[in-house]
Give the backbone structure.
Amino acid sequence: MKRLLFLIAVLALLIASSPGFRTEAVMQAGAAQAGTPQNGATAGTPHQALLTTYCYSCHSTRVKAGGLALQGLDIQAVGADAESWEKAVRKLRGRLMPPPGSPQPQQQDIDAFVAWMENKLDTNPRAPKAGYVGLQRLTRTEYAAAVKALVGVEIVAKDVLPQDAAVEGFDNIASALNVSPTFMEQYVEAARAIAKKAIGDNSLDSTSYALTAHRGVEAMPLGLRDGGLRLKHNFPVDGDYRFNVLFPDGTLGLYTGSIENEATLVLMIDGKVMFKKPIGGLNDLMLNNRKAGDGRQQITDRFRNVSLPIKAGVREVVVGFIDRSRFESLSNQGGGGAGGLPSFNSIEIKGPYNPTGAVSTEGRTLLYVCDPKVTGEAPCAKQIATALSRRAFRRPVTDADLVRLMPFYEAGRKERDFDRGIERLVAAVLVSPDFLYRASRGIQPAPAGAEHALTEYELATRLSFFLWNTGPDEELFKLAASRELTKPAVLDAQVTRMLADPKAASLVTNFAMKWLGLERLEEFRPADEIYANFDPLRQDLVTETQAFVRGVLLENRPIVDMLTSDRTYLNDRIARHYGMTGVNGAQFRWVTLTDRNRVGLLGKGAVLISTSYPDRTSPVLRGAWVLERVIGAPPTPPPPGVESNLSQRAGETPKTVRARLEQHRENVTCRQCHGVIDPMGLALENFDAVGQFRTVDRQAANAPIDASTVLPSGLAINGPVELREYLAGSPAKFAQAFTEKLLMYAVNRELEYFDMPQVRAVVRGAAKDQYTLSSIVRGIVRSDAFLKQGAAGSHKPAAAKVAANK
């Protein structure tokens, strides 16, 4: 009997010590605390068990960590608490929860719960399908693109209008686009100047082009080195035009390194060399040394008031230096210094002098749909007003529209002539609320509080601004007028057509670069001891990243190629920065990378620099970037008052950034977030603050770089190659992060919990095409979120903030 009791005791001990028994015991204890699960969700179900074991201790109705209480919610009726469950799903997908230091479920258990919960949420019949988008002002980039399409005038938006507020990096979110009286004054001034340029006249005018605004937009012609200007300029009439090439202060100063070597500056019009003169070399050095300021003035005067005869029309203007790659290579060794060769910072074009012939501008071609000498001035003005306002207002024109507009023409006509009248008319259209604002009223009448479909013209407008960043073209207008655009097959055909149009490049500059957080890279300035004279390299890295992303998106390749593609677009300066050989010359070209560390976005200098501080790397910034942009699970911001400065303190023994972070994570509160964020960033520690690969940290007494880490799931990875392989192994997760931001950009509002089922539906539909841009866009434009307007009051105002480079 004693032996039997002993065996029973041993068996009980073995059972109690087994993992399955412990999980069940914890589950039962949690169930007792939480109360009896509702609607048949018993403690024995695996999904309820996961919540009970790992979630309820922090997310109970009493503790409510992070403002989220899951305890007591009915997991068999998730639609009633969809917002809470969407928050939970996002945290679990990104392995942000349970926090490090807490018991962790197996990855397969998390995956099973997330798949089950998402299916429940996606089949909720009561969920709203569309959010509300209020009256929406054009952003300054949309304004510039619309002006170019309407009247043929190209403007640099940031030189004309103030910066727009941004939400999650995007400046096209309707609720953040406010207007002040000062703002409207700038719109009025811009409209007047644009109208004058569109119509054109023989009066003297001056236009300046800054190198920083135009460099890198187009590659320089063969034979010219990087660092010049290539742009289009409208010459309104035949005549002489004077060019001034302006050099920055200090270029020809006391320190004459920039003119040690002779360079030849050329000015080309439509590919033909019109002016060519040397600068620098022995003669200029001696002139500078002998005559100081007077000598420098003589040098720069060679490039002022360069008078050239030019025919009317839009011409390509190129100003640059003949390539001398050998000197440039020598001058840029060891940190990007610019000594040895001169550079300019802007050009000015004045004219016309001695004008002849009729005025000719791109604006007149677009605007003058009739000849006033044939039809009569008043009827022709009305035709121009009708055609222009139809395109500008993005809808059919009414008699009331013309009643408001024609007095502006009449006042200008009385002031001088027909052209002045049309100029006044154009300015009036460009400040009209019908042009400056987009409204989605939907098909009326609609029941109060109900979602309603966009009108055909509203759909054409939303589609056009989504894919082209400007208003609809004639084909979209015709489809809207015939009520064909809402047909799925027609909508698909338009997506294909529009993505093939050059205007679709706006998806790279206005969406992708902002989604990736790279739009403010121009403001990044590394510490001089890390990299001097960074400006030329910065623009090159932006050019590389834009071309790389464009190659994936607009060539309709799987978007996961952004993580895995070994093709990139670079020149000799980037190649030197990346430690590559065999790439010569300033011209950009496609190359195949042999260094696996450089593959995809994680190896791009622009990404690595934008996630660093000026004087050091930041695994925190880089880890947060991966979580938000690639995984779609942005980490929680640090609470107010938390010490986040990890900079090396004066007098301390130098430590690696990793060592400083490990010390920071010793605090249990800090570890809960940093235990999730830091591992992703630590895997990228081989890249320094300017994106150069390293094996030792020279700022920490040449300590070796340790890029090994362990993810919250328990997976050990080492370095950028293994991190990339891990991320690329979940293409659907990356596609969902991309799609969520693209939908936000498309519908011009912050997404809400009820949008996520549609995001997931788009991703599932795009899977068969390997998540190409076109398959994702087709899914978005077919969704109710895109096709409909929600009821007023159903949205949350955007927490608008001016985007900053942090």
